[in-house]
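$ fold --in a.seq
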Amino acid sequence: MRLYDERNKTPDMTCGYCHESGHRRNHCPTLKAHYEQDQRGEPVDPSLLTQLTKYWGVQSSQVQNWYERYGKADAERYFGEKTAKAKPKKRKKAKCGFCGKTSHNRRNCKAMKQFKYLYEQANLAYRKEFYDRIIVGMGYGSGALVSMRLYEGQDTSPIALVSDLDPMSIGLGNLIGGYWSEYATTLRTSVLWEGLKRKFPRHTRLFHFQDTQSPSLREDDIITETFFAGSNPDYWSQGWIQSIVSPAPQTMSEDWFNGQSEPIDYVMKKRTAKELWMTFRSQITTFYPHSNKERKINAFKRSVGLPV
């Protein structure tokens, strides 16, 4: 999932006053210097706003106007004399960040354990079906030869070699629509063609088979809908697999494959039960493999106060 993949990514930080990176207005040295100049009755120094003067060519009068309109009020709040501290508010009783109850925290949350079980069982069943239909059934994997369709109406079908298929990227997040969804997981696979490694764009349907009788293609099926486009390729797709010419020479072990699942623990620590259920409700309902599905789902719903 993007939420997990980008866990170590540092968000960009740009000051809204000086437009330099690395700080916000409340720690802006330029805003503080301008405030101190203004307090002394001096005009603000335009040379300190290097980004504005460099790219916009602003004059001294414009910088003074910039400070009056966009900096002065914040500067007084951040750097002016501090008033007496307000009486601290009464601290609210701590509550679980996952289910919202006040009797415990995430560490011993019953609902979190229930959701994790539902998700992991459904995810394992989805991965097993992906393994059976695409890795074993079609022979897709590292070393497979595939016929590529690079653009609509091409005269030839170049042959490419599948260079990798990351099993960590196969999970229920594949079935989450939306390019920017933080819960979406892009299937990470690439091919070698004309000496170059070619990756597939996020949420591009990977296979554009003409043979609708393939055992991997089924009507009204979420895997077919996600990875296959039949004879009507996505308009925005730039390169896709038209057929498997030769299957992968070696199929990855099913036990090893099932042990590479993307962890859900990190995501559960960052989001609430209701958010995750609204996102993965359809996928869990579709792929949960056991006969006690209704009982397990209802027990989880009752734990988080969702209607049963």
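$ fold --in b.seq
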Amino acid sequence: MKTEETLSATVEEYLETIYNMAMEDEIVIGARLAERFRVSPPTVTEMLKRLVRDGYVEMDNKRQVTLTEAGNQAAEAVLRRHRLTERFLVDMLGMQWHQVHEEACRLEHFISGAVDARSYLKDQGAVRLSTLAVNETATILCISEVVEDEEALILYMHEKGLTPGTQLTMLAQNDSNEEGQEESVKLQVAGHEVCISKTAAAKIWVTR
């Protein structure tokens, strides 16, 4: 089996994407990976064969893909490096949070493999914002890596003042039954009330 240091950027991207999709309870199959990476199904099939051969993923008789323990460790290492890269770009270079994601995606593959490969979200005790109880306070850790239009969500969060490190309080959850009205949550952020959709809230990871 290859060591983390010798993994290509493409392999790391596949492992990270499979990990993040699984975290969002998505069924991981080759067709969905092809859509996400915008490549042909045969290209994904060849990569999955390689990952199975190298011991990073397993596939069942329905062709559903799951990470092995080695695959999980490698993906968690990439995710951790991604978050550290984002913090570096924001804290040290002064970039805006909503502008750093794509740059972090490029740089994360070049950070030393000596970075601890523990699960980032588990280590932080992170939970989804949508699961907070009313009057519960938490701090934003990050947003999900698996959304249909991640850049749009990041910009939306930035405009709402919901950036990593922001403390917030859950004020209310609206489970509306009115037709056409989306379920929402009301938050208190920096002394102001902020409303966002429950769908968006489910994509935000926070620590209590």
